[in-house]
Amino acid sequence: MVTEKVSSPCEIRQGTSPVILGFPHTGTEVPAEIADRLNDNGRMLADTDWHIHRLYDGLLDDVTVVRATFHRYVIDANRDPAGVSLYPGQNTTGLVPETDFDGKAIWKDGQAPDEADVAARLRDFHAPYHGALAAEIERVRAIHGVAILYDCHSIRSHIPFLFEGKLPDFNIGTDMGKTCDSAIEQATLTVVEAAEGYDSVLNGRFKGGWTTRHYGRPDTGVHAIQMELAQSTHLQTEAAPFAYDGAKAERLRVHLKNILVRIEQIAPGLKR
User: Fold this and answer.
1) Which of 78, 152, 154, 178 has CA atoms 20 to 30 A from the CA of 68?
2) In the sheet where 147-155 sits, what is the strand order?
3) How does strand 170-173 pair with strand 222-230?
């Protein structure tokens, strides 16, 4: 499933809404010299946030989008560039993962990235993505006096290496309310709690990744919230070929649109 190229580290679509959609994990592009070092398991790219940019497409008029095109096995755009763990003491994957979400090796023997590789990938992929995201946040804040980053994610609903049992369908992360105004958190929670047939949690296993925690500074007019969706909500199966389920997706998109519209409506009242 590897796409052996990287056309550009990220794609940007500029809009005038106060909301920005971030997609750090939907990319499947891997430079050939990196792809050659992945083992058969790694080349499956199983930990992709499959089809999430498609799922959100067209839900909010004139929204800004910043999407990483490279895969998280190249470097994880949602990790601290210093390599500090998001969840100390818990199983997780790092800045440049050595294993997949099941704890299985993704690199050929002796081919795991070294410090020089990590430094190069920070420069060539991680930094350009976050440079673009930071620029769009500043541009949107200049228009509205406020910017709301909604960071879009998905993950398999059952991953024993990372968490026990089944993951809720909607996983909202605000780092315990630190990364956004409470009105944004509450609006999102209200929608997902009313979504019939779905379950949800606020600041459960996923409390917001590095992107949400890094940019979410409500006192500066920049708010950030992460939505981690269980892939069972929009995929035919949570295994290869990870096909998009149009019927499931359309049911889900109703609620996602409701969230985005509501937080956009809140934005004018958040100006400092």
Assistant:
1) 178
2) 10-13, 64-68, 19-23, 147-155, 222-230, 170-173, 200-202
3) antiparallel
pLDDT over 70 (residue 272): no
CA distance 108 to 238: 25
What is the identity of the amino acid at 258?
N
Stretch 5-33: mean pLDDT: 93
**230 phi and psi, to 5 degrees?**
-65, 135
Q: Are strands 147-155 and 222-230 parallel, antiparallel or unpaired?
A: parallel
The reported pLDDT for the residue numbered 162 is 87
Residue 6: the pLDDT is 57
Answer yes or no: is pLDDT of 4 > 60: no
Mean pLDDT of 112-135: 97
Among 56-65, 87-96, 114-123, 168-177, name the one with the lowest average pLDDT.
87-96
Could you give the angle at which helices 246-266 and 182-194 cross, rounded to 10 degrees? 150
- CA dist 188 to 61, 97, 259, 263, Å? 18, 31, 5, 8
Left if phi > 0, otherwise alpha if psi is -120 to 50, otherwise beta: which for 9? alpha
Give the DSSP H or E segment for 45.
none
Contacts of 122 (CB under 8 A, 6+ apart): 75, 81, 95
Q: Per the structure block, which two tokens stand in for 70?
A: 């490279």
Q: Which has the closest alpha carbon to 172: 47, 263, 65, 73? A: 263
In this structure, of 86-95, 114-123, 207-216, the range with the lowest mean pLDDT score is 86-95
> Are the CB atoms for 216 and 208 separated by under 8 Å?
yes
Q: What is the pLDDT of residue 163?
A: 86
